[in-house]
UniProtKB/TrEMBL annotation:
Lineage top rank: taxon: Eukaryota
Source taxonomy: Eukaryota, Fungi, Dikarya, Basidiomycota, Agaricomycotina
Protein's organism: Postia placenta MAD-698-R-SB12
Residue stretches of biased makeup (Basic and acidic residues): 22-37
Compositional bias segments (type: Polar residues): 39-53
Segments of this protein annotated with the region Disordered: 1-101
UniProt name for this protein: Uncharacterized protein
Amino acid sequence: MSLLFCQNIPADRTRSQGARSDPQESDGKLMHHRDPLDSPSNPCVSEPPNNRLSPELNEASVQSSSEQPQPELRPLTSLRWPYVPEESAYPDPLKRDDPKPLQIPQYEAIATSPAIRRALVSNPQLPTLLRSIDRLRGPEREEALEHALGIAPADRQAPAQPEEDTRALRMLAEAVEAAVRGGKQDVLGLDWGD
């Protein structure tokens, strides 16, 4: 339901002089409509929704969408964002080189990265692998992650991880790193040991 404000409110009637602001009142100073385009003679002003396009643009979008079906993307507001602590006004000099927690813009870059989406779509076993690693805690988690990425020391090598899983996880890790960096090359990143 959209809320419309009329331009035909008399200048001599203000809220302090008894102008009514009830949305249900009959003189139409403030009206509710299901669709503002249903009544072309409506004197009220509203901004049309962004999804209403000119016929030429609408046909072009239909053609492009029929050529390549895009999956339905969830809005960023529907995601459960992790807690991000505010930065201290007086940073601890001893923690200057420690890893920093991700900030909201970095989470947004990860959530909207096409490279991360491609990695997840092209490797259907990747979410299962990530969940199995996420269930672990402490050193076991670190070892499982190193093993899955293929960077575990030779003395700790367990049974070999399938090569395609290792490649898929590494592709995802590189995509996440690129999204977090945001194009900055001077920031320290992952050392693959290649």
